[in-house]
Amino acid sequence: MNTPETAPAGKARPAVIHVVEDDPRDLSLVELLLRREGFTVLGFSDAESFLAHAAKQSPDVILLDLLLPGIGGLETLSRLNQLQLEAPVILLTGQGTAENAFQAMRLGAYDFIPKPFEAGRLSVSIHNALRTKDLTREVRKLQDELRIQFDFRNLIGVSPAITRVLASIERLAGSDLPVLIQGEAGTGKELVGRTIHYNSRRGEGPFVYLNCGDLRPDLVSAELFGGSSPSGARRPGKWDRANGGTLFLDDVSELPAPLQDALLRQLEREKEPGATAMDIRIICAARKDLAQEVEAGRFSPELVNRLAPFRVVMPPLRERLEDIPLLAQRILNEIALQEHRPERVLSPEAMETLENYPWPGNIRELKNVLRQVCSLSSAPVLRAEDLPPSIREAAAKRAEAEPAPEAEPISPIKEVEERLIRQSLAQTGWDVNRSASLLGISRATLYRRLKALQISRENL
Question: Are 107 and 161 in a shared domain?
Fold first, then answer.
């Protein structure tokens, strides 16, 4: 076995190529050609020594003779699969047949080059294999980043409403069943769909998005099922591209009636004996209640039964007010990271304003508001005055309209309440979040009681 060449100091490591060839003349020729191109080469005359070395140190590309003494090339390729190396394998053979080529490709060989080979043909194959390997690594890196981005832990919240959602989607990620995600605009339906996908067995497959409400009715069919190009060739649609992954149909309640029928027929066709079934999981999102749409005659009941055996209902932000501090700080941290700025926080008064606002646009509106505030203020602590006037005014009106828990209780109860609040604040060092949690009330309620009872840091 030849020893590897060392790269000159200060230069990038050249690609390492293992050549497994029992003919000394062919091995010497290949080594000479590859070294001329700047590769580091290791030569092996038998599969056993090559496999032992590759298990310890994987090469970048493998050139493997099909006919070897002892373990043959196809068996060696099979054992390489068990080692799970990332190195592409190029098979070399002087007795290549179509059957050998088919078996080699089925076992994962990158290329199949007959002998005697042309130097240019071999060089092109190696460079293409290296580019493919780099692309594969990049795809896996992106997939890992997506799995981190859409980890269950990124769906934050402590409210009972979101806790139920998290429990549901963790169970659904382990199945292949269709899912319907219902909720108002901006509640995070697409985020939940992507989280289910990237935490399922399909996580390395495609996530294909189609908004059924953004396209003209005559274009939805072509987008979903494809069509014909001007040359007459068939153009694939979202359905074809989702094979092996997930098709996410946003605003599915806006799907035109003819397309509802076409989608139902496609789903039925997949179940017919002998049909070439596509490996697709469908996740749908809808702002409207599909049960009501069925009752109104605007949506197919059969299609609802196929698309929605399981439903996830996303709660509006006004029903999970206790999650606003967590969500707001997460958004501020993300903005700081994206804009390369120091992290910022909200003052207690600003947080109380956010908790009193009804958020008709839900989390999407919260993100937009905080981005606007961050673009207009560079202060490390964002005050209530930094929030848009419309937010402050609506929050004030809602706070005034709420039934006033501060209606004067009888004196003994008021005294007990004040004592409990003071004790909790003293215990937590004026941590309003923890104090509200200890008392079993929301931050907004605690702030109102502090104002009514005239409790401040100074007189604690």
Answer: no
